[in-house]
Amino acid sequence: MTIDFAIILIPFIMAALILLFNKQLRKKYLGWIVLIIPVSLFLILTTYIPRIANGETYTHTYEWIPAFNLNFTTYIDGLSLILSLLITGVGSLVILYSIFYLSMKESLHHFYCYLLLFMGAMLGVVFSDNLMVLYAFWELTSVSSFLLIAFWHHRKASRAGARKSMTITVSGGVSMLTGFLMLYVMSGTFSIREIIANVEKISEHSLFIPALILILLGAFTKSAQFPFHIWLPDAMEAPTPVSAYLHSATMVKAGIYLVARFTPVFGGEMVWFWTVTGVGLITLFWGSFNAVRQTDLKAILAFSTVSQLGLIMSLLGLGSVAVHLGYSADTVIYTQATFAALFHLINHSTFKGALFMMVGIVDHEIGTRDIRRLGGLMSIMPFTFTIAVIGSFSMAGLPPFNGFLSKEMFFAATVKILQLDVFSIESTGILIPLIAWVASILTFVYCIIIVNRTFLGKIKPDIQEKNPHEAPLGMLISPFILITLVIAIFFFPNLLGEYILKPAMASVYPTFPSAAEMTPHISAWHGFNIELLMTIGVIVLGIVLYRLLKYWKKIYRIFPQNWTLNAIYERVITTSENVSESITNRYMNGKLTHYFIYIYISFVVIVAGTFVALDAFSWNPRLDAPVETYELLLVFIMIFTAIGLVFAKSRITSVLLNGVLGYSVAFFFVIFRAPDLALTQLVVESVTTALFLICFKHLGALKPEPSSKRVKVSNGVISILVGATVTLIGLAVVNYEKFETISTYFENSYELAGGKNIVNTILGDFRAFDTMLEVVVLFIAGLGVYTLINLKAAKKEGADIENK
Amino acid sequence: MLNVKEILEWIAVLSVLLASIISMISAFGMIRLPDVYTRSHAATKSSTMAVLACLSGAFIYFWVHDGYVSVRLILGIVFVFITAPVSGHLVTRAAYRARVPLAEGSGDDALKPVLFGDEQTSPTITADNVDKHE
Amino acid sequence: MKETILLLALTFFMIAIGLLLYRSIVGPTMPDRAIALDTIGVNIISAIAIVSIILSTTAFLEAILILGILAFIGTIAFSKYIERGVIVERKGDS
Amino acid sequence: MESLIMILVGILASVGTYLILSRNIIRVILGTAIYSHAVHLLILTMGGLKKGDVPILSQSEGPFTDALPQALILTAIVISFATTALLLVLAYRTYKTNGSDDFHELREMPDE
Amino acid sequence: MKINDVILRTVVKGVIFIILTLGVYLFFSGHNAPGGGFIGGLVLGSAIVLLYITYDLETVHKKMPFDFKKVAALGVLLATGTAVGSILFDAPFLSQTDGYFNIPILGEKHLTTVTIFEAGVALTVIGTLVTIILSIGEDE
Amino acid sequence: MNNLIVLPLIIPIITAVVLVFLRDQIVLQRIISFVTMGFVCIVSFILLNIVQTEGIIRLDFSGWMPPFGILFVADSFSLLLVLTSSIVTLICLLYAFSMMGQRYEKMFFYPFVLFLVAGVNGSFLTGDIFNLFVCFEVMLLASYVLVAFGGGKRQLRESLKYVLINVVASWMFLVALAFLYGSVKTLNMAHIAQRVAEVGQDPLITTVAILFLIVFSLKAGLLLFFWLPGSYSVPPTVVQALFAALLTKVGIYALIRTFTLMFPLQQEVTHTIIGIMAGLTIIAGCMGALAGRDVYTIATYNVIIGTGFILIGLAVGTESAMAGAIYYLIHDIVAKALLFLLIGMMIYLTGETVVKKMSGLIQIYPIFGWIYFILMLALAGIPPFSGFIGKVLIGQGAIEAHSYILLALGFASSIIVLYSLLRIFLASFFGETTISPEDKKPIPKGAYTSFILLAISIIYLGIGAESIAVYVKDAAETLMNPSIYIDAILKG
To answer: What are the Na+/H+ antiporter MnhB subunit-related protein domain coordinates in residue numbering (chain E) (predicted)?
Structure first.
């Protein structure tokens, strides 16, 4: 077993071990033991950095279901390495943080188990080369995040949030699966590498665009892109370490990863460019716009996450244009958007992780996250304040923090794209930098809100009473490491660029010859250009807007409450439940008669419909055997008897009439040369009639049908149609004489089976098996009658285990 | 010309025809006669006669035509002969015990006081409500 | 000729059965029906005999006997039902 | 003859269907009984009617009428008898426990 | 009040033998003439039902103390047993054999395993028929 | 000739009859029925492997050559189903041992179950269309008794409906058989296939095929599922599980067999109709599952969705879709059995059927809860559990055949399945527990064992899908090339 396979597997094994040895492990040490896993994984992964930076990739295949091309192929390249480092790195910090955050009363083993499951699943997502395996891990992340979000499942909101995230992300997953399958059908392989290598062959296929859209849907739901972002704020019901982990660094980044991964496949398409960029920008704006109005710190962060993910997404969209243009010295410049995206991916994980942990600390120590009740914490919690300031400023895009660098690059990319005249950018392209800029202003506003409302101003009295204090050291370690990174990256961004981002660029643009060319030198000062102007504008306007917040906050009320996306989502669900219920209850009304009507109508429509549509009818009465008078009489007797049955008013009459029918059938058997049948029919009919009499005696009197005339007529029509269908097909079949019957064989019964009664030899020898089973049927019926009569419903004091 | 075999076959066939006519008559009797007791005469007596004639005809026919002496037919004749009166008896008795009224003009019913006592006022079961009574 | 007569006889039996059927539907009392059905059974016996002659086969003669038996059992059961309301008595020394 | 029997079968099927569509248990069960009569005749017709002699070797030299449908019908008769017996008892028990033999009323009855 | 059944019972005593004979006859004649295990069983079963009708449950039960469910089960066992038996002789399932056996007193007879199979059928039919009638009868 | 093939049918029958004699020895009954089913499992597994090496094997009863006699045909498809259903029955028996109650067990419960299994196995194995009818009836008669087992008010009512609808379905089956015999004059399925191919499946034969479609749809719950929700929610839990696992599957099997072997030539007619019916089934099933307020409704409509989903595989009709349908069929047998067992246990523990009235079960019965969770994922087709591979293959087949509507419906249904089952999970398993410590009933060991075994099967069928892939591929290949089957029967 190679290391890359082990990396995925170890978290799962550990999760299982935790569950198995839950009783033996002391709760105190559980977290520390678990911590070993991500830390060691992280360290192992760092050893890959230099080798990957040299342009190496690692592939290993383990057979899973080779019969259907489902193989466990791991593939490590620059892109997956970035993500895996984030997963294990942030994972270590989050576990370290949660050791101090979670109280000993919680069911910690569950928590760590889910967390490890999630970690393993995420690693699986980024390391899988096989689409189906990727999908498997993808869904596993949804499932494990569901468990994490519902960790406090006694809370209704937790359950609701978990349900929402599960429903939305799994739906996206299913659509992604469909897209994957389309890719498979087009390319004949599940391997992403092979698909990328053969992209020209499939790009003309009619399924190419549908596959693109379906896969994007998967990515958008996972990465909380508009309008699927609604699950993310609700998912904040999870314990804060979970939010810090899932919603800053890992799960939501899976969608980003997917888009980056598939850029080489779909990047050349205009649909891809506009969908990814457009949705990204809308999300960016919508997230920041909504973040401003939130009062819960965690909700602000949730929307800010949504917004930042939109930013990264739009960058990836902008970068994809390079794929379309193909490699040339002029087009390389457009890859910088992707570079910025990857860069911001890392930056966002650092500052957002820190911010979430900061909120966790506030919540943990103060007991509330509502900014209306907070304020002035700066003096009480100076360290936490530092974290908040650095994190927020980085998010707002201020120097000297890493957010500044990536934000500048973002602006640069949006502006640069305007120079192109593909994809009809020239007409609407101006919107791109505009939206980006507006959204950044709003980002700036909510960053200020986070810092100001929480830490500045006066301490609210009810908080003062609780005697709040700074968090314990343990809880501060993780955010401080992240904060350090925020600053360190600002000062040494090119280290990151050279060792980590460059190989990733190579995997996003495999057709471009030189990764180094696509790796710009990042510098904090890059001249006095339009990006910088935009940033200055952001700061100025941001401050102004913050000051004027109470004046323009009214615009949030323009949107009616019941037309928010959340409300629409809820409404769709409740409506569909209610509509389903009313429709289902309407036709599934428990009335047997109605069920029969449905069945007969289907019978007539489908069978007779086919019969008529295919024009299968034929009739040739001349082939018929002659009819004698007495036979005709018998037929009339039967018809009259049958019709008499419909109008019979007493039980006895009906039963007797049925008996008459049976006897007439027996007589037909006589006429049609079937002695055995006649005998059997006579006896069976008599016995049946007797049974009818015995049983019907216990049933109520035969009342006239209480149905209305209309019902009777419609029933009559259905009945006649059924009868007509049978007759017509029967007539056609009677005249169908293309084959010799196999029964001539049985006429040698004496030589073959030693019997002269052909029917009986068929029953006793040729088809004895039917007879044997028929005996069994009879026996079951006899035993069943006995059981039905003797097994009465249990009385209340019945000693049954299952009382129904 | 007519030989013995032919004659016997004709006898068989004619007895069958006779049987069918008797049966028709008995059926008309079933329709026309006024109450269950009289109808049972039509049914048990003439129908039995009919079936006996018919079966005998069939017996003769098979005997003459195929040289086949059918024990089953004889058995059948015997069986019908034994059981027809019994079943006729039982049904009529049951009818009486179920208080099916006699047709008008049947004369005195001497059994009634013996069997049911003097309950003159007891509700007799009319023809219409027998079913409902079940 | 013989065949025609037999068919005629068969037709007569059918008519008789039809008439009896009318009686068994109309009733008006249970015993009427029982008698009518018994007679129908007997007539079918005759009819089967005739068909056997026409087809010149002895294969149906068992049916005659069986029908006789069934008509008998049926009538007994019926009359018992009319008389006592049950067909099989649980216990009784009557 | 075949056409006649087909029409008869159709009429029996119609009557059976009509009875099955009624609300009363008795009528529904009778409907199923008529159904079985209809289908037995139908199967028999499928082998051709009156096309040969009684399928007993000692009785004739042939040609014989198709014996296979007869064997099938025999099996079908037994099975339908078994089913009917069970159905009748079930109906009877249902009526005893629920106190109604009208399917619409049965539906509305409270549980237990 | 008691209802006199003398006529019925007297006749039935005679008739029952005719029925039983017929039943046995039908059972054995099955291979060459109409009849067979099923119909034979039905006739025999009807004979027993006739007894139940003319007498009553308890009286008949004293004379014939069988559990008819087990009779039926025995029948199924016989029928399936002959079928399975062929497996033991490495013949296809359900294979029937026949042969002429020289039995003392009766002389040479044609015997087939089909007869055992049919006997199973007949027993099942009898058992089931009576079980059904009795179950319903006893429930009243 | 290979007499082993008949054992999955005959052994349960004989045992069932023997158990009738052992009515009062309940422990003995349990042991015997368990051993019997174990034996059947082993036999079917051996057979499955024989088929891999020797190709399709058959057993001509009494030695009569097809098409004249009746025969059992064992190919990978039927044997896979025999094996799965036998294993599931075996596990369900474990549940029954601890949950059934002596009063029921004395009333021939085990014989009826064994008869049911015999009928099911017979239906899977037979190669004669009329014999299929007879095997159906064996199964149905047993099911008629089992569905009314207990005799409660509502139970009897629903049983009556169930029986009546099935009686009508059986009648239609006979009508279809009559027409089939009337047109092709033979009953052996391979021979029918051959003769149908000779005339190129002309319109009349297609009409007959459609009639069979209606018949088997009634059994499988394809569009004509009206009997299903009511009757599957009344019998004792084990019976429900067996019904959900086996009965509809037999109908599905018959549909697949009929339309791949006997009437495969007019796909633009037959498969279009099947596709439409499958689509409508899924829609109706999803609506029912969404509407469900109580666990039974949700579970029964899930059965319906499952049927629709499998038959998408048939309607699509490519080889991968067929393989997917087989995979999904096997998965569905196991998963639906487990679903009903779990739901029965929930009701037993809480005394409620309404989802919202239960709460917090997972706190008291953690393993029980997690098994439900895994099952939920499996039913929604989430990897790596059993439903996944079938779903993928059916989806792949649908894309290959350009049946995008069916694809969309099928995949959307898996979300609804997840949603409906998630609702149960969140409401009933999560949350504060409502059961007070005094009322806490233990889950009997036998029941737990059966849950765990079925859960293991679900996981194994997903992760270890490769181990049965060879059988499934063979089965799908045989289904797609009916000549393999026909030649195995009629040549030699």
So the answer is: 7-131
